[in-house]
Write a structure and sequence with these properties.
Blueprint lengths: L2 E7 L2 E7 L5 H18 L7 H8 L1 E4 L2 H16 L9 H6 L24 E3 L3 E4 L11 H15 L5 E5 L2 E5 L4 E7 L2 E11 L2 E7 L4 E3 L2 E2 L13 E8 L2 H10 L5 H5 L5 E6 L4 E3 L5 E3 L2
Antiparallel strand pairs: 1-2, 2-6, 3-5, 4-5, 6-7, 7-10, 8-9, 9-16, 10-13, 11-12, 13-14, 14-15
Helix pairs in contact: 1-5, 3-6, 5-6
Length: about 290
């Protein structure tokens, strides 16, 4: 693709590649989509909807795409037995991954509070029976990728890639080959996958580390950082689903997810073993 637009949003680097140039208004539209999403869901912003809920409870109205996110998070919560939960936000903060990025734990690991009785996620928005700090990082960045690609498609860009630092979705003819970054050596790869139409997302526990055994991937059932899986990659039709499944694969077996989702995956364990779905559109290196 001949044209690129790079920018920063939600704390990470983004790149949009397209076959046709993006108009200035379209670039501004992409930035607006990112800022609107951040204003809803960022637990690092004092003025976000999520932060207001954490302070006072009550309800937060969401746009139409909020219902899609809620349905996915609830399904992942149920399939993983509570291992994935938006209520993990306060546990992440307890371990130092808080709004001020203190990286200083203030409490021992503990299970996230139960969804039922506290959190109601409907077609219209989110309601809390008591103040609680939510975190939609399990699938939120992926959904933002989808929203940007949907915007580009509506604007007439039929050949495009939206890449949020490795979480990407592509539309158009042909394919691209994507390297799977080695979690212990960013200069090398453990393999490649071929992406045609659809999404590829990745998650690695070493991306945000602030202490011995402390990182951003928690099992909500225990509050402990996951130490058995170090990296996941998922191919799916959309980035929100791929992103959510990347998170779920840290806390549950792929077979547990196969009954609810259509996806391909690569898993890397802390002992160096790799596991992948078959047939996989790509190759792992020995």
């Amino acid at each position: 693709m001949g044209y690129s637009f790079s920018f920063e949003a939600i704390g990470t680097a983004w790149r949009v590649d397209s076959a046709a140039p993006l108009l200035a208004a379209q670039k501004a539209g992409l930035l607006r989509i990112a800022d609107d999403y951040d204003a809803l869901y960022s637990r690092f912003r004092a003025d976000s909807g999520i932060t207001e809920l954490a302070a006072s409870g009550g309800s937060l109205s969401l746009p139409g795409h909020g219902a899609r996110l809620g349905r996915l998070l609830r399904t992942l919560h149920d399939v993983t037995g509570g291992g994935v939960s938006p209520l993990v936000g306060e546990r992440l903060a307890d371990q130092g991954y808080d709004a001020g990025y203190s990286f200083v734990p203030t409490a021992a690991p503990a299970p996230a509070r139960a969804w039922d009785g506290l959190l109601e996620w409907t077609e219209d928005g989110v309601s809390l029976a008591a103040p609680a700090l939510l975190d939609v990082g399990a699938a939120g960045k992926g959904q933002l990728v989808d929203l940007m690609l949907e915007y580009l498609l509506a604007a007439g860009h039929g050949q495009a890639v939206v890449d949020a630092s490795g979480d990407m979705r592509r539309t158009g003819s042909g394919s691209i080959t994507v390297a799977l970054e080695h979690p212990y050596d960013p200069s090398s790869a453990i393999g490649t996958v071929v992406l045609t139409e659809g999404a590829l997302c990745a998650s690695a526990s070493n991306r945000r580390v602030w202490g011995d055994g402390l990182h951003h991937v928690l099992d909500a059932r225990t509050g402990h950082c996951v130490d058995t899986v170090v990296a996941t990659w998922v191919l799916a039709a959309d980035a929100m689903t791929a992103d959510g499944l990347c998170t779920a694969l840290f806390v549950t077996d792929p077979a547990d997810l196969a009954g609810s989702f259509d996806f391909d995956f690569v898993l890397m364990y802390s002992d160096g073993r790799a596991r992948y779905s078959a047939p996989l559109a790509g190759a792992l290196f020995s």
